[in-house]
Amino acid sequence: MTRQGHIAWVVLDDPERDNRLSEEVLSQLYAYTQELTHDASVRVVVIHGSGEAFFSHGILTPQIKQSMGKHKTLELVALANRTFDAVEALPQIVIAGINGTIRAGACELALVSDIRLMAAHATWQFPEAQWGGFPGAGAPVRLPMMVGMAHTLEMVALSKIYTAPELLHMGLVSQVVEGPQLLQALRELAEKYAQVGPLASLGAKAVARTRMTQGFGAARLLSDHLRRSFEFTHDADEGMQAHMSGRKPDFTGH
Q1: Which DSSP state fits 180?
Q2: Which CATH architecture is the domain 2-194 placed in?
Q3: 194 vs 46, 205, 218, CA distance in Å?
């Protein structure tokens, strides 16, 4: 993980193994989440794979499962769930840059990001049904709220391979760009979010996530609390003063 200003970059960098999400990679990603959770200087987290061939081939294949055995396989799935839940719970805006083929558990990592950009040549698939099962790191849990029941079943139970334009049409990704332009598109989007007052972007994310996970009542309570608290912050005064004087605001998150 590297930091550039208010942006943290996490790169899945093991192209010889198709950027696979191994136990080591998942453990490191979990450690990053624990660090980032308490780092108020970071406002945006970007996750992408190295190269243009693969974002990641995922966590498991039949060959890996056979070599690991059942108990180790279940431990790895539990680690993936713990890690992905932690990514989803990050207070920062999380952007996934799907730079190439994305499969299985790697799709589940992308699902816990807030925003997904995808290279035009990339494809998306959950192949687990072809192996007799279903994705175990959150896909059937999260997908229905994101794309509806019909698309969820088609994606998970039929193992359909989706193109980037198809995912854009269903709203699962927000932008499709040519592969060589993906990093620049990620950088531009991340910088836009990093320049927004963190009380605005992080507050909006917290309320929206609460609405999705706990319902309207909890989200309304949180929204009201955050809005009242915001009125007495430096950023509330700074935003008004900067607007009236025609200058760029200097938001601090306080």
Answers
A1: G
A2: Alpha-Beta Complex (3.90)
A3: 11, 14, 27
